[in-house]
Amino acid sequence: MTPTHEGALQITRESLHFLRSSIGGLPEEAMDWKPLPGASSLAVLVVHSVTATRFFLRAGSGEAGSLAEYRSGDRADAFRTAGIGKGDLLGMVTAFGGEAEAILAKGTGEHLAARVELNAADDMPVPVRSGAGTLFAAIAHLREHVGHVQLMHDLWLAEHPA
After folding, report:
1. CA neighbours closer than 13 Å in the CB half-sphere of residue 40
2. What are the residues whose beta carbons fall under 8 Å from the beta carbon of 109, sequence distance 6 or more?
3. What is the pLDDT of residue 127?
4. pLDDT at residue 122, as a whole number
5. Among residues 143, 161, 148, 121, which one has the least CA distance to residue 56?
6. Are the CB atoms for 15 and 100 separated by under 8 Å?
7. Quick count: other Cβ atoms within 10 Å of Cβ 125?
8. What are the DSSP calls for the chain, one per residue?
């Protein structure tokens, strides 16, 4: 594993720890709760965080997939998530830690330097990045959603005082 892939793994593991910590102490009903109509629930944010990170870590490790297929499949499914229990979400996050390690272990220096072109069939802009840039984007995106989950944790507690 390159030092860059190792660094991405470390930040991914830290981020997954923050996800587990944010949802671990909340009740089941908090997983599907939304503070406003149209907002994403904790369950949606967690599932999307895992699926998106998986896709982009693979792309930065030499396994660039179809962005169009990701958007119409895993991403779309993640945003329809409902009814997944806290235990299943925690299990998903924990399992993804091992999967992320396996993905990143395949990464090489050549993958870091390679251009990653993620073709999409829609009009959403898709920047061409190096493999390293793709890894950085993956962990930045993950960390952004970790912040959203932490905020949702705090909003739940503010709306549902003990």
Report:
1. 20
2. 2
3. 81
4. 67
5. 143
6. no
7. 6
8. --HHHHHHHHHHHHHHHHHHHHHHTS-GGGSS--SSTTPPPHHHHHHHHHHHHHHHHHHTTT----HHHHIIIIIHHHTT--S--HHHHHHHHHHHHHHHHHHHHT--HHHHHSEE----SSSS----EEHHHHHHHHHHHHHHHHHHHHHHHHHHHHHS--
Token pair in block for residue 66: 């179809």
Q: Give Cα separations from 118 to 9, 49, 60, 156 (angstroms).
A: 22, 18, 11, 36
Q: Which residues pair with 115 in a beta bridge?
A: 130
List of the chain residues with pLDDT < 50: none
Domains of the chain and CATH, by start: 3-159 (1.20.120.450)
Instruction: Please count the other Cβ atoms lying within 10 Å of the Cβ belonging to residue 76.
Output: 10
pLDDT of residue 150: 97
Tokens standing for residue 15: 């981020």
